[in-house]
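Hi support team,

I've been running sequence recovery on a batch of backbones for a student project. Most finish fine, but this one hangs at about 90% for roughly twenty minutes before it completes. I'm not sure whether the input is malformed or the queue is just slow. I've pasted the structure tokens below so you can try to reproduce it. Let me know if you need the job ID as well.

Thanks,
M.K.
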């Protein structure tokens, strides 16, 4: 076996000191204020999608990320060009954070030809390969083997890139998760699986609480069974997520061994657009979690530290509203895909794969 570092295409493995330096940049107050804006953009975007769905302008289905913003915002802060990101159907925040055009993202939800997937994917199937975003998948746990496969391919192709693989608490009870985690752990022994599992434990899989769906509610500990190192993080606290994300991302990059983080979070919005009554939880419970809303928490910290004042926060909220109004108008006014496109993009072309041409 060649030494671990020989597998790195560019041989650039950062030292512990360098990665610590990076972590402190990641949490500087200016940077936090920037990330606050990103989270506000996601929230405003999501609220607009809820309105669009209620008005019958967005078809199919809709799962918003409200309450969970700090998780993807923190982890994608550690993203480097060439990394891959894959998630399930609660996917709107990901392209927004990876730099996709919010107009194209919204247009996809509206089923318009200007959308990220030419209007043929919709809310659950956002894709932006150029920015490393590999979807947007509707079958619970179905994307987990794909993510682990990418984590393998990245090492096979001798890169130091990683795959951020997001999954829900419901998905860890699904067969493909266990098969994929087993292989990730096995390949990882040889430094051949750069998968960072990020389990978003938002307490529910649709209408079923974690405690009602598994006898072993310690979700990160499930990875012990597959030899995958793991930890938990407070997914409502952006600063905690950032610290964890930068540290473990560097570890996966450096070692080629998978790692798992269980982000403890909460979806304050209903599961999806057809979850009208939320009978599976109490209003008090939702209220309690709202008090730790990730955007509110960060806002409070930035106000206390004097990084932002009330006026600037109001300004940011107005800016976001204005941006999202433009985004929505673009989506509404775009054209639908033409009928001739019905059978195009069904199968991948010969040149559309991850590896380099021989
Ligand atoms: C294999 C499969 N079974 C059932 C469903 C129906 N379903 C859609 S979402 C969901 C809950 C999944 O919960 P979780 O993984 O925690 O994700 P969250 O919705 O909380 O983000 C279920 C069971 C599905 N899409 N796929
Ligand atoms: Mg869940």
């Amino acid at each position: 076996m060649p030494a671990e570092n020989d597998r790195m295409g560019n041989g650039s493995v950062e030292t512990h000191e360098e990665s610590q330096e990076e972590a402190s940049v990641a949490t500087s107050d200016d940077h936090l204020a920037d990330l606050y804006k990103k989270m506000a953009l996601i929230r405003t975007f999501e609220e607009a999608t809820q309105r669009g769905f209620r008005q019958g302008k967005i078809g199919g289905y809709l799962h918003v990320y409200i309450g969970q913003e700090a998780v993807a915002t923190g982890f994608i802060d550690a993203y480097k060009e060439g990394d891959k990101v894959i998630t399930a159907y609660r996917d709107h925040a990901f392209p927004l954070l990876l730099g996709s055009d919010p107009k194209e993202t919204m247009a996809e939800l509206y089923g318009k030809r200007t959308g990220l997937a030419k209007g043929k994917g919709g809310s659950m199937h956002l894709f932006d390969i150029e920015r490393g975003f590999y979807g947007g998948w509707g079958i619970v746990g179905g994307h987990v083997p794909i993510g682990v496969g990418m984590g393998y391919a990245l090492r096979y192709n001798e890169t130091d890139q990683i795959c951020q693989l997001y999954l829900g608490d419901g998905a860890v009870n699904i067969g493909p998760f266990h098969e994929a985690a087993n292989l990730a752990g096995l390949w990882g022994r040889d430094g051949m699986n750069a998968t960072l599992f990020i389990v978003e434990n938002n307490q529910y899989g649709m209408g079923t609480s974690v405690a009602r769906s598994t006898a072993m509610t310690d979700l990160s500990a499930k990875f012990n069974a597959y030899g995958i190192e793991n930890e938990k993080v407070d997914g409502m606290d952006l600063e905690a997520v950032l610290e964890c994300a930068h540290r473990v991302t560097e570890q996966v990059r450096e070692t080629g061994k998978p790692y798992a983080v269980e982000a403890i979070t909460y979806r304050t919005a209903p599961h999806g657009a057809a979850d009208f009554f939320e009978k599976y939880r109490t209003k008090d419970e939702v209220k309690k979690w709202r008090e730790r809303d990730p955007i509110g928490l960060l806002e409070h910290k930035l106000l206390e530290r004097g990084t932002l004042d009330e006026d600037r926060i109001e300004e940011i909220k107005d800016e976001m509203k204005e941006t999202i109004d433009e985004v929505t108008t673009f989506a509404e006014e775009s054209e639908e895909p033409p009928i001739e496109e019905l059978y195009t993009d069904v199968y991948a072309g010969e040149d559309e794969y991850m590896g380099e041409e021989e």
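--
Follow-up from support: It reproduced on our side and the slowdown came from queue contention, not your input. Confidence is low (pLDDT under 50) at residues 1-19. No action needed from you.
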